Amino acid sequence: MTLRGGSFVLAGLLALSACTAPPAPDVQAAVVRPQVRVAPPAPIIAAPSTQSDALRTYYTRIEDGLVSRGLLRVDGGGPDTPFTDTQLARNFVRIALFDEYVSDGNFLRAQATASNLSRWTGPVRMTVEFGDTIPADRRMTDRAEVTKYAKRLARVTGHPITMSDANPNFYVMFLNEGDRRGSEARLRQLVPGIAPSSMRAILGLPSNQLCIVVAFSEAGKSTYSKAIAVIRGEHPDLLRKSCIHEELAQGLGLPNDSPAARPSIFNDDEEFGLLTTHDEMLLRMLYDPRLRNGMDAAEAAPIVRQIATELVDGSTS
Fold first, then answer.
1. How high is the pLDDT of residue 313?
2. What is the pLDDT of residue 110?
3. What global pTM score does this model have?
4. Quick count: other Cβ atoms within 10 Å of Cβ 88?
5. 245 phi and psi, to 5 degrees?
6. Are 48 and 176 in contact, with CB atoms under 8 Å apart?
7. What is the pLDDT of residue 49?
8. Within the chain, which residues score under 50 in pLDDT?
9. Which domains does the chain have, with CATH numbers?
10. How far is CA 38 from CA 43, 188, 238, in A?
């Protein structure tokens, strides 16, 4: 799910994860002092809260339930999920040129809305940050997973996407509940003047939203210059990896979901947990030089259909 929202000097695009879980158990919110993270030479690990313990159990049950029903597939699609060039083109228009959420003052409201093509034009430099309660071994695994996926995204898009702690512009944050609720100061440091709707979306992320990404561009432009993805630290392995795959891809310029997209992670049915062959094609299309930032659906559609036909080897529908 995605919304392009309010601005300060930047205009924000807000992408909520397509993964929507059942209601969580009633967990009381703790008051956490906002803090600015400064990475120490060796991580100092704080004890997770009872909130995180309850959520960890909850998300493990979510993952187990989805997997038991044959969902969160990791095979990327196969003979049982054929798609044509026409379907691929339609899915691209719906996912890349529509927003799922809009900003309503200081809040977000679900409403499918036509938009314009937005993507990065400059290099994407990803970095990973961790909340104080994320264990050291988990940090190593998460960093390795993001690094591996960033290489895949660079290969698929043909766009410069690297891991770098030098002047990063795409922050991937792994935060437990207390870490996230106490991240206001850090968010304001990363995005001075961040819109209230974007801040509320991250700090008040409901338990049935598994992860979130917010991408920012200069006001009035369709070129991204910064993004923040938040992955819940309470997630078990597959949900965690699924969030990495979806949010980082959405943060490159695929903000919406479509019930017609298959095989795809950009579909609320949760059939696929990891980036599919179909989704790789969407990313190739997104960064094809024949498209330009700011195009609307009517302008882009003929070009998108041509690219889709090339990618699907000339299959027809």
1. 83
2. 62
3. 0.85
4. 24
5. -65, -45
6. yes
7. 72
8. 1-11, 14-18, 22-43, 316-317
9. 2-25+45-311 (3.40.390.10)
10. 10, 14, 29
In this structure, what token pair is assigned to residue 126?
């990803």
Q: In whole angstroms, what is the distance from residue 7 CA to residue 20 CA?
A: 26
Q: Considering the chain, what is the average pLDDT of its residues?
A: 85
Contacts of 56 (CB under 8 A, 6+ apart): 48, 234, 236
What pLDDT shows up at residue 91?
98
**258 close to 87: Cβ distance less than 8 angstroms:** no
Cα separation, 205 vs 19, whole angstroms: 13
Residue type, 218: E
